Amino acid sequence: MASPEIEALTQALARLPGLGPRSARRAVLHLLKKREAALGPLRAALEAVDERLETCATCGNVDTANPCAICADPRRDPRALCVVEEVADLWALERSRLFPGRFHVLGGRLSALEGIRPEDLAIETLVARIEAGGIDEVVLAMNATLEGQTTAHYLADRIERFPVRVTQLAHGLPVGGELDYLDEGTLAQALRARRPVS
Amino acid sequence: MASPEIEALTQALARLPGLGPRSARRAVLHLLKKREAALGPLRAALEAVDERLETCATCGNVDTANPCAICADPRRDPRALCVVEEVADLWALERSRLFPGRFHVLGGRLSALEGIRPEDLAIETLVARIEAGGIDEVVLAMNATLEGQTTAHYLADRIERFPVRVTQLAHGLPVGGELDYLDEGTLAQALRARRPVS
Ligand SMILES: [Zn+2]
Ligand SMILES: [Zn+2]
Fold first, then answer.
1. Chain B residue closest to A54 (CA)?
2. SS3 label, residue B60
3. This prediction's pTM
4. Which InterPro entries is this protein grouped with (chains A, B) (predicted)?
5. Is ipTM over 0.90?
6. How far is CA A69 from the centre of its chain?
Protein backbone atom coordinates (compact mmCIF):
# COMPACT_ATOMS: atom_id res chain seq x y z
CA MET A 1 0.00 0.00 0.00
CA ALA A 2 1.41 3.37 -0.93
CA SER A 3 1.76 5.99 1.81
CA PRO A 4 -1.08 8.46 2.53
CA GLU A 5 1.06 11.22 0.98
CA ILE A 6 1.24 9.31 -2.28
CA GLU A 7 -2.46 8.47 -2.22
CA ALA A 8 -3.31 12.16 -1.68
CA LEU A 9 -1.09 13.24 -4.58
CA THR A 10 -2.53 10.53 -6.83
CA GLN A 11 -6.06 11.67 -6.04
CA ALA A 12 -5.24 15.36 -6.57
CA LEU A 13 -3.72 14.58 -9.97
CA ALA A 14 -6.54 12.19 -10.92
CA ARG A 15 -9.02 15.08 -10.59
CA LEU A 16 -7.29 17.08 -13.34
CA PRO A 17 -9.07 17.00 -16.70
CA GLY A 18 -7.38 14.49 -18.99
CA LEU A 19 -5.91 12.40 -16.17
CA GLY A 20 -7.68 9.38 -14.69
CA PRO A 21 -6.64 7.29 -11.68
CA ARG A 22 -4.41 5.10 -13.82
CA SER A 23 -2.45 7.90 -15.49
CA ALA A 24 -2.33 9.81 -12.21
CA ARG A 25 -0.56 6.85 -10.60
CA ARG A 26 1.89 6.70 -13.50
CA ALA A 27 2.50 10.44 -13.12
CA VAL A 28 3.18 10.03 -9.39
CA LEU A 29 5.62 7.22 -10.08
CA HIS A 30 7.37 9.45 -12.60
CA LEU A 31 7.55 12.30 -10.07
CA LEU A 32 9.00 9.99 -7.41
CA LYS A 33 11.62 8.65 -9.79
CA LYS A 34 12.57 12.13 -11.03
CA ARG A 35 12.46 14.17 -7.88
CA GLU A 36 15.04 16.73 -8.98
CA ALA A 37 13.99 16.95 -12.62
CA ALA A 38 10.20 16.66 -12.34
CA LEU A 39 8.82 16.88 -8.80
CA GLY A 40 10.88 19.92 -7.81
CA PRO A 41 9.99 22.05 -10.84
CA LEU A 42 6.31 21.10 -10.70
CA ARG A 43 6.16 21.97 -7.02
CA ALA A 44 7.92 25.30 -7.58
CA ALA A 45 5.67 26.14 -10.53
CA LEU A 46 2.52 25.41 -8.53
CA GLU A 47 3.77 27.47 -5.62
CA ALA A 48 4.58 30.41 -7.92
CA VAL A 49 1.16 30.29 -9.55
CA ASP A 50 -0.60 29.92 -6.21
CA GLU A 51 1.33 32.72 -4.53
CA ARG A 52 1.81 35.24 -7.31
CA LEU A 53 -1.25 35.00 -9.52
CA GLU A 54 -4.58 36.62 -8.94
CA THR A 55 -7.71 37.19 -10.96
CA CYS A 56 -8.11 40.69 -12.39
CA ALA A 57 -11.18 42.22 -10.75
CA THR A 58 -11.85 44.24 -13.92
CA CYS A 59 -11.61 41.70 -16.71
CA GLY A 60 -11.17 38.23 -15.16
CA ASN A 61 -7.70 37.68 -16.62
CA VAL A 62 -5.18 35.86 -14.42
CA ASP A 63 -1.97 37.80 -13.82
CA THR A 64 0.60 38.79 -11.21
CA ALA A 65 -1.09 42.18 -10.86
CA ASN A 66 -4.66 43.33 -10.24
CA PRO A 67 -5.69 45.15 -12.38
CA CYS A 68 -3.85 42.93 -14.87
CA ALA A 69 -1.14 44.11 -17.27
CA ILE A 70 -3.65 44.40 -20.12
CA CYS A 71 -6.16 46.47 -18.14
CA ALA A 72 -3.34 48.68 -16.79
CA ASP A 73 -1.64 49.20 -20.17
CA PRO A 74 -2.34 52.79 -21.35
CA ARG A 75 -1.47 51.81 -24.92
CA ARG A 76 -4.42 49.43 -25.14
CA ASP A 77 -7.46 50.97 -26.85
CA PRO A 78 -10.03 51.55 -24.08
CA ARG A 79 -12.83 51.87 -26.64
CA ALA A 80 -12.65 48.23 -27.84
CA LEU A 81 -13.69 45.39 -25.56
CA CYS A 82 -13.37 41.73 -26.50
CA VAL A 83 -15.57 39.28 -24.56
CA VAL A 84 -14.29 35.70 -24.27
CA GLU A 85 -15.52 32.58 -22.54
CA GLU A 86 -12.34 31.54 -20.77
CA VAL A 87 -8.94 32.91 -19.80
CA ALA A 88 -7.39 30.47 -22.29
CA ASP A 89 -9.31 32.21 -25.08
CA LEU A 90 -7.84 35.55 -23.99
CA TRP A 91 -4.38 33.97 -24.14
CA ALA A 92 -5.10 32.59 -27.61
CA LEU A 93 -6.11 36.05 -28.85
CA GLU A 94 -3.11 37.67 -27.18
CA ARG A 95 -0.79 35.25 -28.94
CA SER A 96 -2.17 36.57 -32.24
CA ARG A 97 -1.38 40.15 -31.03
CA LEU A 98 -4.16 41.44 -33.26
CA PHE A 99 -6.66 42.85 -30.82
CA PRO A 100 -5.63 46.30 -29.61
CA GLY A 101 -8.32 46.70 -26.96
CA ARG A 102 -9.13 45.13 -23.61
CA PHE A 103 -10.88 41.94 -22.58
CA HIS A 104 -13.71 40.59 -20.51
CA VAL A 105 -13.65 36.95 -19.40
CA LEU A 106 -17.09 35.43 -18.81
CA GLY A 107 -15.77 32.34 -17.03
CA GLY A 108 -17.74 29.95 -19.23
CA ARG A 109 -20.74 29.88 -21.55
CA LEU A 110 -24.47 29.42 -21.09
CA SER A 111 -25.38 25.75 -21.07
CA ALA A 112 -28.81 24.27 -20.47
CA LEU A 113 -27.17 20.85 -20.35
CA GLU A 114 -24.73 21.79 -17.58
CA GLY A 115 -27.15 24.16 -15.87
CA ILE A 116 -24.96 27.22 -16.45
CA ARG A 117 -27.17 30.30 -16.29
CA PRO A 118 -26.43 34.00 -16.91
CA GLU A 119 -25.90 34.62 -13.18
CA ASP A 120 -23.13 31.99 -13.19
CA LEU A 121 -21.08 34.07 -15.65
CA ALA A 122 -19.44 37.50 -15.36
CA ILE A 123 -22.26 39.17 -17.30
CA GLU A 124 -23.39 41.84 -14.80
CA THR A 125 -19.83 43.14 -14.57
CA LEU A 126 -19.70 43.21 -18.39
CA VAL A 127 -22.91 45.23 -18.55
CA ALA A 128 -21.57 47.56 -15.87
CA ARG A 129 -18.35 48.15 -17.81
CA ILE A 130 -20.31 49.03 -20.94
CA GLU A 131 -22.78 51.16 -18.99
CA ALA A 132 -19.89 53.12 -17.49
CA GLY A 133 -19.18 54.40 -20.99
CA GLY A 134 -16.07 54.98 -23.09
CA ILE A 135 -16.50 51.77 -25.06
CA ASP A 136 -17.35 52.00 -28.78
CA GLU A 137 -17.19 48.36 -29.82
CA VAL A 138 -17.84 45.07 -28.08
CA VAL A 139 -16.44 42.02 -29.88
CA LEU A 140 -18.23 38.83 -28.84
CA ALA A 141 -15.46 36.27 -29.31
CA MET A 142 -17.36 33.20 -28.21
CA ASN A 143 -16.44 29.74 -29.43
CA ALA A 144 -18.14 28.64 -32.66
CA THR A 145 -20.16 26.06 -30.76
CA LEU A 146 -23.92 25.99 -30.22
CA GLU A 147 -23.47 27.07 -26.62
CA GLY A 148 -20.96 29.76 -27.54
CA GLN A 149 -23.31 31.22 -30.15
CA THR A 150 -26.27 31.03 -27.75
CA THR A 151 -24.18 32.99 -25.26
CA ALA A 152 -23.25 35.57 -27.92
CA HIS A 153 -26.91 36.11 -28.82
CA TYR A 154 -27.86 36.43 -25.18
CA LEU A 155 -25.12 39.03 -24.66
CA ALA A 156 -26.11 40.91 -27.82
CA ASP A 157 -29.65 41.18 -26.44
CA ARG A 158 -28.40 42.33 -23.06
CA ILE A 159 -26.26 45.15 -24.46
CA GLU A 160 -28.30 46.31 -27.44
CA ARG A 161 -29.64 49.27 -25.43
CA PHE A 162 -26.15 50.78 -25.17
CA PRO A 163 -24.61 52.98 -27.90
CA VAL A 164 -21.92 50.46 -28.82
CA ARG A 165 -21.21 48.52 -31.97
CA VAL A 166 -21.57 44.82 -31.20
CA THR A 167 -19.56 42.51 -33.45
CA GLN A 168 -18.62 38.88 -33.46
CA LEU A 169 -15.72 36.97 -34.94
CA ALA A 170 -16.19 36.30 -38.64
CA HIS A 171 -17.41 33.00 -39.81
CA GLY A 172 -14.51 31.08 -41.09
CA LEU A 173 -14.03 29.43 -37.76
CA PRO A 174 -14.53 25.74 -38.37
CA VAL A 175 -17.95 24.61 -37.16
CA GLY A 176 -17.71 23.21 -33.65
CA GLY A 177 -14.25 24.74 -33.34
CA GLU A 178 -12.95 26.11 -30.08
CA LEU A 179 -10.79 29.24 -30.08
CA ASP A 180 -8.11 27.73 -27.95
CA TYR A 181 -7.52 25.01 -30.57
CA LEU A 182 -7.13 27.27 -33.61
CA ASP A 183 -3.94 28.23 -35.36
CA GLU A 184 -3.10 31.92 -35.25
CA GLY A 185 -3.75 32.44 -38.97
CA THR A 186 -7.35 31.31 -38.75
CA LEU A 187 -7.83 33.34 -35.61
CA ALA A 188 -6.31 36.43 -37.23
CA GLN A 189 -8.54 36.11 -40.28
CA ALA A 190 -11.65 35.67 -38.17
CA LEU A 191 -10.76 38.71 -36.08
CA ARG A 192 -10.00 40.95 -39.07
CA ALA A 193 -13.26 40.03 -40.79
CA ARG A 194 -15.43 40.47 -37.70
CA ARG A 195 -18.91 41.71 -38.49
CA PRO A 196 -21.88 43.27 -36.68
CA VAL A 197 -24.16 40.83 -34.86
CA SER A 198 -27.32 40.57 -36.99
CA MET B 1 0.07 35.78 -23.63
CA ALA B 2 -0.12 33.91 -20.35
CA SER B 3 2.25 34.94 -17.54
CA PRO B 4 5.66 33.24 -17.11
CA GLU B 5 4.30 31.51 -13.99
CA ILE B 6 1.53 29.92 -16.02
CA GLU B 7 3.92 28.94 -18.83
CA ALA B 8 6.24 27.28 -16.31
CA LEU B 9 3.40 25.32 -14.73
CA THR B 10 2.09 24.29 -18.14
CA GLN B 11 5.53 23.01 -19.13
CA ALA B 12 6.04 21.14 -15.85
CA LEU B 13 2.68 19.40 -16.25
CA ALA B 14 3.23 18.71 -19.96
CA ARG B 15 6.30 16.64 -19.05
CA LEU B 16 4.24 14.17 -17.02
CA PRO B 17 3.55 10.87 -18.76
CA GLY B 18 0.05 10.90 -20.23
CA LEU B 19 -0.19 14.70 -20.46
CA GLY B 20 0.79 16.64 -23.58
CA PRO B 21 1.00 20.42 -24.06
CA ARG B 22 -2.70 20.64 -24.90
CA SER B 23 -3.99 18.71 -21.90
CA ALA B 24 -1.44 20.45 -19.67
CA ARG B 25 -2.92 23.81 -20.66
CA ARG B 26 -6.42 22.50 -19.91
CA ALA B 27 -5.19 21.26 -16.54
CA VAL B 28 -3.68 24.67 -15.74
CA LEU B 29 -6.92 26.40 -16.68
CA HIS B 30 -8.78 24.01 -14.40
CA LEU B 31 -6.35 24.72 -11.55
CA LEU B 32 -6.74 28.47 -12.01
CA LYS B 33 -10.53 28.22 -12.01
CA LYS B 34 -10.60 25.94 -8.96
CA ARG B 35 -7.88 27.43 -6.80
CA GLU B 36 -9.41 26.33 -3.48
CA ALA B 37 -10.68 22.94 -4.65
CA ALA B 38 -7.90 21.84 -7.01
CA LEU B 39 -4.78 24.01 -6.94
CA GLY B 40 -4.53 24.15 -3.15
CA PRO B 41 -4.84 20.38 -2.57
CA LEU B 42 -2.46 19.55 -5.43
CA ARG B 43 0.13 21.99 -4.11
CA ALA B 44 -0.20 20.63 -0.57
CA ALA B 45 0.02 17.03 -1.78
CA LEU B 46 3.17 17.76 -3.80
CA GLU B 47 4.76 19.54 -0.86
CA ALA B 48 3.96 16.65 1.48
CA VAL B 49 5.43 14.11 -0.93
CA ASP B 50 8.49 16.25 -1.57
CA GLU B 51 9.15 16.97 2.09
CA ARG B 52 8.16 13.76 3.80
CA LEU B 53 8.97 10.93 1.43
CA GLU B 54 12.30 9.31 0.91
CA THR B 55 13.58 6.23 -0.83
CA CYS B 56 14.32 3.28 1.44
CA ALA B 57 18.06 2.63 1.22
CA THR B 58 17.43 -1.08 1.81
CA CYS B 59 14.64 -1.96 -0.63
CA GLY B 60 13.98 1.08 -2.84
CA ASN B 61 10.41 1.57 -1.58
CA VAL B 62 9.22 5.16 -1.14
CA ASP B 63 7.98 5.96 2.35
CA THR B 64 8.04 8.54 5.14
CA ALA B 65 10.72 6.53 6.93
CA ASN B 66 14.08 5.07 5.92
CA PRO B 67 14.19 2.10 6.35
CA CYS B 68 10.60 1.94 5.14
CA ALA B 69 7.68 0.56 7.16
CA ILE B 70 7.91 -2.79 5.37
CA CYS B 71 11.66 -3.22 6.00
CA ALA B 72 11.22 -2.12 9.62
CA ASP B 73 8.19 -4.33 10.34
CA PRO B 74 9.32 -7.24 12.56
CA ARG B 75 6.21 -9.23 11.58
CA ARG B 76 7.35 -9.44 7.94
CA ASP B 77 9.10 -12.69 7.13
CA PRO B 78 12.81 -11.83 6.67
CA ARG B 79 13.42 -15.09 4.82
CA ALA B 80 11.26 -14.22 1.79
CA LEU B 81 12.31 -11.48 -0.61
CA CYS B 82 10.18 -10.34 -3.54
CA VAL B 83 12.00 -8.52 -6.37
CA VAL B 84 9.91 -6.08 -8.43
CA GLU B 85 10.68 -3.70 -11.29
CA GLU B 86 9.03 -0.57 -9.94
CA VAL B 87 7.66 0.88 -6.71
CA ALA B 88 4.19 0.70 -8.27
CA ASP B 89 4.57 -3.08 -8.54
CA LEU B 90 5.39 -3.23 -4.83
CA TRP B 91 2.22 -1.23 -4.13
CA ALA B 92 0.19 -3.56 -6.34
CA LEU B 93 1.47 -6.59 -4.41
CA GLU B 94 0.89 -4.87 -1.07
CA ARG B 95 -2.71 -4.18 -2.03
CA SER B 96 -3.16 -7.95 -2.43
CA ARG B 97 -1.72 -8.38 1.11
CA LEU B 98 -0.53 -11.85 0.13
CA PHE B 99 3.21 -11.59 0.30
CA PRO B 100 4.46 -11.91 3.89
CA GLY B 101 8.10 -11.08 3.19
CA ARG B 102 10.06 -8.02 2.17
CA PHE B 103 10.76 -6.39 -1.18
CA HIS B 104 13.53 -5.23 -3.46
CA VAL B 105 12.79 -2.59 -6.11
CA LEU B 106 15.05 -2.75 -9.16
CA GLY B 107 14.01 0.64 -10.54
CA GLY B 108 13.22 -0.71 -14.01
CA ARG B 109 14.01 -3.69 -16.21
CA LEU B 110 16.79 -4.59 -18.61
CA SER B 111 16.10 -3.17 -22.06
CA ALA B 112 18.36 -3.33 -25.08
CA LEU B 113 15.98 -0.96 -26.85
CA GLU B 114 16.21 1.72 -24.16
CA GLY B 115 19.83 0.96 -23.32
CA ILE B 116 19.06 -0.08 -19.74
CA ARG B 117 21.89 -2.31 -18.51
CA PRO B 118 22.36 -4.27 -15.26
CA GLU B 119 24.39 -1.44 -13.73
CA ASP B 120 21.42 0.91 -14.23
CA LEU B 121 19.28 -1.20 -11.90
CA ALA B 122 19.55 -1.96 -8.17
CA ILE B 123 21.05 -5.40 -8.82
CA GLU B 124 24.30 -5.15 -6.84
CA THR B 125 22.35 -4.20 -3.73
CA LEU B 126 20.05 -7.17 -4.35
CA VAL B 127 23.01 -9.54 -4.61
CA ALA B 128 24.47 -8.02 -1.44
CA ARG B 129 21.23 -8.56 0.47
CA ILE B 130 21.12 -12.22 -0.57
CA GLU B 131 24.84 -12.65 0.10
CA ALA B 132 24.35 -11.28 3.62
CA GLY B 133 22.25 -14.36 4.35
CA GLY B 134 18.99 -15.06 6.18
CA ILE B 135 16.97 -15.23 2.96
CA ASP B 136 15.47 -18.60 1.92
CA GLU B 137 13.40 -17.61 -1.10
CA VAL B 138 13.70 -14.92 -3.75
CA VAL B 139 10.49 -14.33 -5.73
CA LEU B 140 11.23 -12.72 -9.08
CA ALA B 141 8.01 -10.75 -9.65
CA MET B 142 8.89 -9.18 -12.96
CA ASN B 143 6.23 -8.10 -15.46
CA ALA B 144 5.15 -10.80 -17.93
CA THR B 145 6.76 -8.87 -20.75
CA LEU B 146 9.74 -9.89 -22.85
CA GLU B 147 11.95 -7.40 -21.01
CA GLY B 148 10.60 -8.44 -17.63
CA GLN B 149 11.29 -12.09 -18.33
CA THR B 150 14.77 -11.29 -19.69
CA THR B 151 15.44 -9.45 -16.46
CA ALA B 152 14.17 -12.40 -14.39
CA HIS B 153 16.47 -14.81 -16.23
CA TYR B 154 19.42 -12.48 -15.78
CA LEU B 155 18.70 -12.24 -12.04
CA ALA B 156 18.25 -16.01 -11.73
CA ASP B 157 21.72 -16.46 -13.27
CA ARG B 158 23.23 -13.86 -10.96
CA ILE B 159 21.90 -15.45 -7.76
CA GLU B 160 22.03 -19.16 -8.59
CA ARG B 161 25.26 -19.52 -6.60
CA PHE B 162 23.46 -18.66 -3.35
CA PRO B 163 21.58 -21.23 -1.27
CA VAL B 164 18.17 -19.68 -1.92
CA ARG B 165 15.08 -20.95 -3.67
CA VAL B 166 14.44 -18.72 -6.69
CA THR B 167 10.82 -18.60 -7.83
CA GLN B 168 8.80 -16.49 -10.19
CA LEU B 169 5.12 -15.62 -10.36
CA ALA B 170 3.05 -18.41 -11.88
CA HIS B 171 2.03 -18.24 -15.45
CA GLY B 172 -1.53 -17.21 -15.55
CA LEU B 173 -0.53 -13.61 -15.94
CA PRO B 174 -1.89 -12.51 -19.29
CA VAL B 175 0.88 -12.37 -21.89
CA GLY B 176 2.25 -8.85 -22.15
CA GLY B 177 0.49 -7.97 -18.92
CA GLU B 178 1.98 -5.56 -16.42
CA LEU B 179 1.59 -6.20 -12.71
CA ASP B 180 0.36 -2.75 -11.95
CA TYR B 181 -2.63 -3.27 -14.29
CA LEU B 182 -3.86 -6.59 -12.91
CA ASP B 183 -6.82 -7.16 -10.66
CA GLU B 184 -6.01 -8.53 -7.22
CA GLY B 185 -7.53 -11.93 -7.93
CA THR B 186 -5.22 -12.64 -10.85
CA LEU B 187 -2.28 -11.34 -8.88
CA ALA B 188 -3.18 -13.48 -5.86
CA GLN B 189 -3.47 -16.60 -8.00
CA ALA B 190 -0.16 -15.96 -9.70
CA LEU B 191 1.55 -15.41 -6.36
CA ARG B 192 0.07 -18.53 -4.72
CA ALA B 193 1.08 -20.74 -7.68
CA ARG B 194 4.61 -19.37 -7.94
CA ARG B 195 7.12 -21.95 -9.12
CA PRO B 196 10.89 -22.46 -9.20
CA VAL B 197 12.70 -20.77 -12.09
CA SER B 198 13.61 -23.59 -14.50
ZN1 LIG C 1 -7.65 42.89 -16.42
ZN1 LIG D 1 12.43 -0.73 2.61
1. B32
2. coil
3. 0.76
4. DNA_Rcmb_RecR (IPR000093), Rcmb_RecR (IPR023627), Rcmb_RecR_Znf (IPR015967), TOPRIM_dom (IPR006171), TOPRIM_RecR (IPR034137)
5. no
6. 16
